[in-house]
């Protein structure tokens, strides 16, 4: 397809999308499926025909307990994969028809990823990994960027120790795999039946999952870890796993102090959604086998509440994906 053809495609009018919608803060009763208009892309934007959108814990958090920056009604979803349907002016890397994955920010007027069409900045979109399905690709962008953001904040060198709580989860998986590929020693927890799984992610040491994560880490790293990625939301109970002056990496924000010179560096993925270089790195990490993508189940858009309930129940290894 020529540049002229691409530019001609960008002159499309708004399209009608089917989308998940939250009417406000609350339980599953606030969820519905609506039709909404999706505008044409502006400069340096693309419009995607979404074929798959992952369901993540953050989608639930938008409605329960709720987000103060939410604009109601709100379409959730931070992971989309599909096909470029239209492009705006000055788009250079992508063409109509490309199979892509995208990191999407809910909360604004354009809504999140759980819709049949979505407009996204070109910088937040890359082609999917080779030999990967669109459904699999939908599980990568947001959690992959979160993992890279956490490791960027931690500033660890090869041989240093990263502790990861909730070691069997998807975010933990990506962070463990990437850290291991950089020569970082990873200590992560797991249930007995999941120890091999977490070891397969790249964890150097797997400790038993228990109510005393910090104590278990100290048994194998007496001086304490250099950094802790707290995907299990341990909070202050996790500080004991860290050495004096270590780095605590919370994934749900932080409004408290710390002890023993511990540096608290919250991981806000929304600040890195347009890191094209990181999205391209994630693609290469899938292609070289460092990261293995896992779909925990496929659900039609109408079953989004069920997908959220199964995710909230725990135990999923991978992500449920809405398919359209």
UniProtKB/TrEMBL annotation:
Keyword Kinase: no
CDD domains linked: MDR_like_2 (cd05289)
Domain Enoyl reductase (ER): 26-322
Gene3D superfamilies noted in UniProt: Medium-chain alcohol dehydrogenases, catalytic domain, NAD(P)-binding Rossmann-like Domain
Keyword annotations from UniProtKB, A to Z: NADP, Oxidoreductase
Signal peptide: none
InterPro entries associated with the record: ADH-like_N, ER, GroES-like_sf, NAD(P)-bd_dom_sf
Pfam short name (any one): ADH_zinc_N_2
Name used for this protein in its record: NADP-dependent oxidoreductase
Species of the source: Sphingomonas olei
């Amino acid at each position: 397809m020529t540049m002229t053809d691409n530019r001609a495609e960008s002159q499309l009018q708004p399209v009608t999308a089917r989308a998940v919608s939250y009417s406000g803060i609350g339980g599953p009763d606030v969820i519905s499926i609506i039709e909404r208009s999706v505008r044409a892309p502006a400069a340096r934007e693309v419009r995607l025909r979404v074929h798959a959108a992952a369901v993540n814990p953050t989608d639930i958090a938008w409605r329960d307990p709720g987000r103060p920056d939410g604009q109601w009604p709100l379409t959730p979803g931070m992971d989309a994969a599909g096909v470029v349907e239209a492009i705006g002016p000055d788009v250079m890397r992508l063409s109509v028809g490309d199979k892509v994955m995208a990191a999407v920010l809910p909360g604004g007027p354009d809504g999140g990823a759980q819709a049949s069409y979505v407009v996204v900045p070109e910088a937040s979109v890359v082609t999917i990994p080779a030999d990967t399905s669109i459904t699999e690709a939908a599980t990568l962008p947001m959690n992959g960027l979160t993992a890279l953001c956490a490791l960027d904040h931690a500033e660890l060198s090869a041989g240093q120790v990263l502790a990861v709580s909730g070691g069997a989860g998807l975010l933990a998986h990506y962070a463990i795999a990437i850290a291991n590929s950089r020569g970082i020693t990873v200590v992560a927890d797991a249930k007995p039946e999941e120890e091999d799984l977490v070891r397969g992610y790249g964890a150097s040491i797997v400790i038993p999952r228990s109510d005393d994560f910090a104590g278990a880490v100290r048994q194998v790293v007496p001086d304490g870890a250099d950094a802790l990625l707290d995907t299990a939301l341990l909070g202050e109970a996790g500080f004991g796993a860290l050495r004096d002056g270590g780095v605590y990496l919370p994934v749900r924000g932080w409004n408290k102090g710390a002890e023993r010179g511990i540096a608290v560096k919250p991981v806000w993925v929304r600040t890195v959604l347009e890191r094209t270089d990181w999205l391209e790195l994630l693609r290469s990490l899938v292609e070289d086998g460092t990261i293995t993508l896992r779909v925990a189940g496929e659900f039609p858009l109408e079953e989004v509440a069920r997908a959220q309930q199964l995710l909230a129940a725990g135990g999923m290894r991978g992500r449920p994906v809405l398919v359209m």
